[in-house]
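Homework help thread (please don't just give me the answer)

Our assignment gives two proteins as sequence + C-alpha cell strings and asks us to describe the second one. The first is just a warm-up. Here they are:
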Amino acid sequence: MTACAQASVHLPALLGAGETRLSAEQIYPRLFDAILEQRLPPGSALPEQALGNAFGVSRTVIRRVLGRLSDQQVVVQRPSHTAHLAAPDPQQARQVLSARRLAETTLIGLATQRARPAQIRQLRQLVERERQHHEQGARCTAIRLGGEFHMKLAQMAANAPLARFLNGLVPMTSLIIARYESRCCDHCAWQEHAAIIDAVEQGDGETALALMHQHLDRLEAKLDLDQPV
C-alpha cells in the first residue's frame, strides 16, 4: 500500500468534508480526487450515513454519488451491504491494465490528429503543475495530476465513448498501484508526459504511440501482481 493511503485517518477529513449542503455534482469530484490521490486505500468502506453527515446531505445524495462511481466500477455496491472501494485482485488488475493500454493507444493516435493549440497549452500547464508538486515532494497530488493528464489527453481525441471508458480505468489503475506497487517509481512521470505532448503537438503519431507504450510499460513494471493480498 502506498504512503498516500491513510486508513487510520477519519474519512471526512480525507475527503476535505466540512462544507454542508453540497450537491452530488460537488461531492463526486472530492471522492474521485481522493481515489486518484490514493488517499483512500482499496477496499475502504464508504458508509452512506457517515458521508451524508460529513457533507450535510441526505443518504439519497450520497447514494447518487456512489452510484456514479459504481458505474465506473470504482465503488462496489451490494444490497444490504456498505459500499466500498474496489480492491482489484491480480486477474482483475491485469484485465484493467490491458484494457487501459488498448484505450490509451487508440486515443493517442486520435489526439495526435485532432489536438488544438489551446488544448496543448492547457495540457502543458497541467504537466507543469505535476512537475512542481513532484519536486515539492507532494506525491499524492502529483499522482492525481498524472491521472488528469491522461483524461485530458483522451478529451483531445474527440471520441466521447472512449474518453468515458478511460475515465473509469484511470481511478481503477490508481487503486491497483496503491495495492500492488512494489517499489517507488525511479523516473519522473511528468517528463514522460511532456515528451508525449511534444509528439502530439508535432503531429508525430508514431513517436507519440511509442512513448505511450513505454510510459505504460514503466507503470506496469513497478507492480507486483504475484504478491499475496
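The one we have to describe:
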Amino acid sequence: MFLLMNTAKSPEMEPRPLSAGELILIGRGEHCDVRLNDPTASRVHCRLLVRDGKVFLTDAGARWGTFVNGVRVNECELKPGDELTVGESVLKLSVESESHGTTLARHSELNRPPGLTIARSVFSSVESIDEKPCPLNFPVFPDRSSPNKFSSRPPEKLIADFPLQAADYVSSNFAGVDIEELICHTPKGLLFRGSWNGQIVALKLLEPQLFRNDKNRTRFLRAVETTQGMSHPHLVKLIDGGIVDCVPYAITEFIEGESAAEMIHRIGVAGMLDWRTTLRIAIDIASALEYLESQNVLHRNVTPQHILYSTQDKRAKLSDLLIVKALDETQPAHTQPGEVLGEIAYASPEPLGSGQPIDHRSDIYQLGANLYALLTGRHPFEGANIPKIIDQVLNNQPVPPTRYHLSIPALFEGTISTMLAKRPQDRFDSARTLGEALVRVQNYAR
C-alpha cells in the first residue's frame, strides 16, 4: 500500500494511506482529504489518483504551482521516494511492506509527462484566487464512472475533481458544440475536438474551481467580450465563450499543427531552432501583435506554448487570447499593480516592479524573450527561484544569443537585444516598427 508521509517541512500531517481507486485532494480547503495548515497552499492544490498500482498527480491550478523533486509539474506519475511540494509543505510518497508493515522508500527519477501538444497550450494560463464562491447549484453533472449518466454527488466535490470527468463529455453537446473526442487534459481544464455549426472547432472547458470569485469571472468575461470577433491571419480565432452553470468555456478554431515549444523538441538541436525558422515565426507573431495594438489589446502571455504553427497554411498563430486586457482607461482596471498573469521567465520588467507602465511594448519584450529561448534553448534569465529570476530581469543583461548559436546574423541578434531592453522607451515603439526591422533581417539574409 502507498503512504503519503510527512517530512520536516510538514510535521503536523499524519501519514495518509492511499487506497486503489481513491481520489485524494490535497490543499488547505475544508473538503480536502489531506488538509494542510499552510497559507501558501491553494484550497485545492493538487490531486492524487491511485490506479493500476500507480499514483498519478495532477496540479489543480495552484497559484504557485506543484513541484515534484524540485521540478514544477502539471501532471505526472509519483513513485516511492518522490517528494511533493505543496506551497511550503513537503510530502513524501512511500510504500508499506505487506510482510513487515514497515515503510520502504526508493529514489526514482521524475516520470515527466510527454511534451505538451498544441491543444494543451490553448487557454492554459488563468490564475487561481480564492474569493467569493460561485453559487453551487448545478442541476446535474456527468458521472465519470458511467458515461452519459449523472451523479448527485456534492457540487463542491464535483468542482474539485472536474478535470477527471473528461470522458463523459464525449458524444454529448456543450454550448452548442457536438463533442467528438477528448484531445487532452490541460493544467486548467479539458480540451475537446468537436463540431459547431458544421465547423470543426476546439472546445475548452476551464475548471470551475478557478472561477469561484467575482474577480476571475469578470476577467474571463471581459476577455471573451474583448476578443470575440477579432480576426487576423496570425491569431487563433475565438468563436464563442461564456460560463454555463459555473463552467467557463471557449470555442476556438481548430489548429492542425504544433506549438513553438514542440518545435524546439522536434526540430531543434540541443533545444535550438534554426534562426530562419525563428525569424519566420517572429514576423508572423509581430504581425499579430500589430493587429492587437490597433485594437488597444495587450496580450500579456506570449510564451512558446501559445505560439502555434499551422501545418495547413504554414503560418504561426498566437493563441490564449483569454488573458488579454483591453487598454480602455474608461473601464475599471482589472489587473492590479504587481500582478503577473504570464510565466515569469517571459515577463517584461514592467509587471515585476520596474515602475514603468505596462503597454504594447511589454508584448514586444515577451516576443523577444521567446525568440531568445527558441534560438538558444534557454530563457534570457534563469535562477534557482522566482525572486532571483525577477532580480535578473530587472537588473541584468542577457548573455548574447550568439554565445550559444553562432550562426545567428548580427542584425537579428541586435533586433532581439532591442526587444529585450529594460526600459520600454528603448525598445521598438510599436509592433509595426518591429515587423519592419524583422523584414530587414529577412531581406539582408537572402
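TA reply:
I won't write it for you, but here's a hint about the kind of observation we're looking for: The first strand starts at residue 2 and ends at 5.
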